[in-house]
Automatic annotation (TrEMBL), chain A:
Its cofactor is FAD. Keywords: FAD, Flavoprotein, Oxidoreductase. It comes from Kitasatospora aureofaciens (Streptomyces aureofaciens). This is Ferredoxin reductase. InterPro entries: FAD-oxidoreductase/Apoptosis, FAD/NAD-bd_sf, FAD/NAD-binding_dom, FAD/NAD-linked_Rdtase_dimer_sf, Reductase_C. Transmembrane segments: none annotated. Residues 10-313 form the FAD/NAD(P)-binding domain. The lineage of its organism: Bacteria, Bacillati, Actinomycetota, Actinomycetes, Kitasatosporales. The keyword Secreted does not apply. It comes from the Bacteria. The gene is hcaD. The keyword ATP-binding does not apply. One of its GO terms (molecular function) is oxidoreductase activity, acting on NAD(P)H. Residues 336-406 form the Reductase C-terminal domain.
TrEMBL record, chain C:
Belongs to the cytochrome P450 family. InterPro entries: Cyt_P450 (IPR001128), Cyt_P450_B (IPR002397), Cyt_P450_sf (IPR036396). GO terms for molecular function: heme binding; iron ion binding; monooxygenase activity; oxidoreductase activity, acting on paired donors, with incorporation or reduction of molecular oxygen. This is Cytochrome. It comes from Kitasatospora aureofaciens. It comes from the Bacteria. Keywords: Heme, Iron, Metal-binding, Monooxygenase, Oxidoreductase.
């Protein structure tokens, strides 16, 4: 029947984690209509986190990363074809092959791509890589297996650090060049970034901070790089790990609120138009979205997190096939993890939404700790290092906006658990690596006030 | 027979390592707590991974077939 | 009835065959139910799960002022708990010995087969004494390196230790139980002596691994070795017996589920998890707050016992749909059968392998068997709840 939300035409643009999980969830929610998934890569949906870990270490190959299905989404897959635009009025998605797909409801999950080296000529040198796709992973893994003399990693964010960790585990010499004061500082703030720097150096990484790479050298093949401090790094492989760019260009003419920070949507994953009016037939999920979160002052969050893609896909799918009063908000707390230099780092909440931190349990010396982040006297995030089982407790504190610092009485309580120190989260513009959580609004206390 | 795939929701993983005990050829601890795993599950490991998925205290392991995308 | 007597009623032996209505009453009265003896009893899933992850909750009996020797890691707090558990894990599991338990599959299958050899149609057997008890005992003896023929010796010690460790209301008029401490010392001495015999001549067993650890920083002291070995020996054979016996009992009571498992053997791993939810081997754990706390609106002072009824949390309808139904294909089964958080069961993976082997091999026998006595006679212990005997006509 007309207007039946469980029937009709749904198009999902983006055939990665969020796209797949949304397609499955639509069927779980009882959607019986026609479902089409468009993806610009020619592959079935695959998992990306192993690209910087198992694949580089040779424990998995890049062509075995396809995501297992929870259920068959019974979709038509249009893979290897790029979406080039949306006509919101005619309700059609335009494809690069000239085709166009009509929809009743549309889900945009086009994710991000690796930020390329700004000089295209230098970026095209043989031996210069970015790491986002399985082709990138296969190429880099093959090059590392051929045992280069030295690898240069540009950018000390999570991806860059994981690549450096894999190189050291393979016994390869590696230099990390980071513009900020330490690795991971953009995501974790000052204290843990110092631990990250110590871990890198202890594992034999040639870590250069406070420098930028000014040029990549080579005649056809990469041979080294110039740094802003005047030094030169001789290397035969270079990985550019400068963060991600959101895949929104195809929406430039669409009238949607799409920009470099992603596509703005409401808490129910419904996209905004450029006038700030919410649509009721266009939804957004995954890395490409930007959404308000009540626990962080309703600021718009942009996350590049695996877990967010899964959670948001489920909410978007639910809301696509249910009427307004039955729709759900996307309130899941951001969570991410990274495994590097033998340590397991997990985070819940938004560490960059903080002014102070305490080490609540464990210690830096033990390489095992729980660090809690506070903003204006409330707990807003926690990061554990090899203490993942502690994270649920702190998650609860964040969800209930508990007072910061956290209450006394914890076992393994650090001596300095009451001494809050500045979180020292830098302005993202000073970093090589992009933060994986971006607060894309204003901090509430820095709003203009009318006098 | 289609080769099975596995993926672990490491957002949920708390390092209980039950999967490593039950299927040590597929799952591996990296350090004390970090989990790495082979994404392709050989036929002779499917039963072990099924056990690992059932036993996972945070239900983070998915074992299944990859999406059939119509041979494209 | 008065909710302050719930712990007394749950631990009353008369409740052993079916404590679940009392757990329902507990959840109804909860979430935090003060008891007549000054303790607090909690039976709702989400509160239990949160407290098992709450770093302010101590597992150490010394937190309630009890003067006692240093307990094994099960009842220690971090960082000491973490240090000792990690050392105990080195010869048992990942990251140092990831293949150890998996490598025991063949042996567990062979022991199971041998035990089932005498199971012939028409015979009456005791599933506990003839099967569910000897299997884990044989396995833990081989793993630790304890001579199986000493079983009568350490069984007496073990009985005394678990009786002393049982959860019961605090009765000030009762004599403090010294039998447990005495047994613990004797069993510890016995195991330490076995370990000493292997110094310099290591076998494949865990006692050998502990005593021959070359790195002094990773070596257990003799006291720690004794405490750890006592814990592993007891936990290894006082709990899995319940899991297997509870499994057999559940299948015999629900023939349609038994049939289903025979038709769909790939469900067995999930059926074992469902057993751990539906009839867990360990029903309660005790914790003690390190600080004055507010638990779900109830102030709980530091130093008083908080009893977490894991088996009640497993039947909480707020967490599990249709919780009193045994469903071997249940999805989203994040049960508390092995606890959760830093004290999650150390030997869980071994118990699972034993349950897969034991219940898998038992299924064909159970298909034509009947219970001789229902409910069967239960063990005295309320915390480690399971049948003492399970007579079955094959």
């Amino acid at each position: 029947m007309a207007g039946d939300l469980k029937d009709g035409l749904i198009v999902i643009v983006g055939a990665s984690l969020a796209g797949l999980r949304a397609a499955e969830a639509l069927r779980e929610e009882g959607f019986t209509g026609s479902l089409t998934v468009v993806g610009d890569e020619p592959h079935a949906p695959y998992d990306r986190p192993p690209l910087s870990k198992q694949v580089l270490l040779g424990q998995a190959t890049a062509d075995t990363l396809e995501l297992p299905m929870r259920r068959d989404p019974d979709a038509e897959w249009r893979l290897g074809v790029r979406a080039t635009g949306v006509d919101l009025l005619a309700k059609r998605v335009l494809l690069a092959d000239g085709d166009s797909l009509p929809y009743d409801r549309l889900l945009i999950a086009t994710g991000t791509r690796a930020r390329p080296w700004p000089n295209p000529e230098e970026g095209a040198l043989d031996g210069v890589f970015t790491l986002r796709t399985r082709e990138d992973g296969a190429g880099l893994a093959e090059r590392l297996a051929a045992r280069p003399e030295r690898v240069l990693v540009i950018g000390g964010g999570f991806t860059g650090s994981e690549i450096a960790s894999a190189c050291r585990e393979l016994g390869l010499a590696v230099t990390v060049a980071e513009r900020g004061p330490a690795p991971l500082v953009g995501a974790l703030g000052g204290t843990l970034s110092k631990l990250a720097a110590v871990m890198q150096r202890n594992h034999g990484v040639d870590l250069r901070t406070g420098v930028t790479v000014t040029a990549l050298n080579g005649n056809g093949a990469f041979t080294g790089a110039q740094l802003s401090d005047g030094s030169r790094v001789e290397a035969d492989v270079c990985v550019v790990a400068l963060g991600a760019i959101r895949n929104v260009e195809w929406l430039a003419e669409s009238g949607l609120a799409a920009g470099p920070r992603g596509i703005a949507c409401d808490a129910g994953c419904r996209a905004f138009t450029m006038y700030g009016i919410v649509t009721d037939d266009v939804f957004v999920a995954g890395d490409v979205s930007r959404f308000p979160h009540p626990l962080f002052g309703y600021q718009m969050l942009s996350l590049e997190h695996w877990g967010n893609a899964v959670e948001q896909a489920a909410v978007a799918a639910h809301n696509m096939v249910n009427p307004g009063p039955l729709q759900r908000p996307h309130l899941a707390l951001p969570v991410f993890w990274s495994t590097q230099f033998g340590l397991n780092i997990k985070s819940v909440g938004v560490p960059t939404y903080s002014d102070h931190v305490v080490i609540a349990q464990g210690s830096l010396e033990a390489r095992r700790l729980a660090m809690v982040y506070g903003y204006q006297g409330r707990v807003t995030a926690a990061v554990t290092v090899d203490m993942a089982k502690a994270l649920d407790y702190y998650r609860h504190l964040i969800e209930t906006a508990a007072p910061f610092p956290p209450p006394p009485g914890a076992q393994d309580r650090a001596i300095a658990a009451d001494i809050a120190i500045p979180s020292a989260v830098p302005d993202p513009s000073v970093l090589s690596h992009g933060p994986t959580v971006a607060l894309t609004g204003h901090l509430p206390d820095r709003r203009l006030t009318v006098v | 027979m289609v080769e099975m795939r596995t993926v672990v929701d490491l957002t949920r993983c708390q390092g209980y390592a039950q999967c490593v005990f039950l299927a040590p050829e597929v799952f591996e601890l990296h350090g004390e707590e970090g989990l790495l795993y082979a994404t392709a599950v050989p036929d002779d490991q499917v039963e072990r991974v099924r056990q690992a998925a059932a036993a996972c205290p945070v239900q983070a392991i998915l074992l299944g077939e990859e999406v059939s995308t119509g041979g494209r | 009835m008065d909710s302050a007597t719930l712990l007394a009623r749950i631990t009353d032996y008369a409740s052993r065959p079916n404590p679940y209505p009392l757990y329902a009453e507990l959840r109804e009265a909860g979430p935090v139910v003060p008891q007549a003896d000054g303790s607090y009893l909690i039976g709702t899933y989400h509160h239990i799960a949160a407290l098992l992850h709450d770093p302010r909750m101590s597992a150490d009996p010394r937190t309630r002022g009890e003067m006692t020797h240093k307990p094994p890691f099960l009842r220690l707090d971090d960082p000491e708990h973490h240090r000792l558990r990690t050392l105990a894990m080195r010869p048992f599991g990942p990251p140092h010995s990831p293949g150890r338990v998996d490598g025991m599959r063949g042996e567990i299958d062979r022991i199971t087969e041998a035990l089932l050899e005498p199971f012939e149609a028409g015979h009456q057997v005791d599933i506990v004494d003839d099967f569910a008890y000897p299997l884990p005992v044989t396995v833990i003896c081989r793993l630790l390196g304890v001579p199986h023929e000493d079983e009568p010796l350490f069984r007496a010690w073990s009985d005394a230790i678990v009786a002393a460790a049982d959860v019961r209301p605090d009765d000030e008029s009762a004599e403090p139980d010294k039998g447990g401490d005495q047994a613990r010392m004797e069993l510890g001495g016995y195991l330490l002596n076995l370990a000493e015999q292997r110094r310099g001549k290591p076998g494949e067993d865990m006692l050998s691994a502990f005593v021959n650890e070359p790195d002094p920083a990773l070596r257990l002291t003799p006291e720690e070795l004794a405490e750890t070995a006592v814990l592993l020996l007891i936990a290894g054979h006082e709990t899995t017996v319940n899991l297997i016996a509870n499994g057999a009992l559940t299948f015999l009571r629900q023939p349609e589920q038994l049939d289903r498992l025979r038709r769909e053997p790939e469900l067995l791993p999930r059926a074992v998890e469902e057993l751990l939810r539906y009839e867990p081997p360990v029903h309660m754990r005790e914790r003690i707050p390190h600080a004055d706390m507010d638990i779900a609106g109830t102030p709980v002072p530091r130093g008083v016992p908080v009893i977490l009824a894991l088996a009640s949390g497993n039947r909480d309808p707020q967490r599990f749909p249709d919780p009193d139904r045994f469903d071997p294909a249940r999805q989203d089964n994040q049960h508390l059968g092995f606890g959760s958080g830093i004290h999650a069961c150390y030997g869980g993976p071994l118990a699972r392998l034993e349950a897969y082997a034991a219940l898998g091999a038992l299924l064909p026998h159970l298909a034509t068997a009947s219970l001789v006595q229902d409910p069967p006679p239960y063990r005295q212990n309320a915390m480690l709840r399971g049948p003492r005997h399970l007579p079955v006509r094959l």
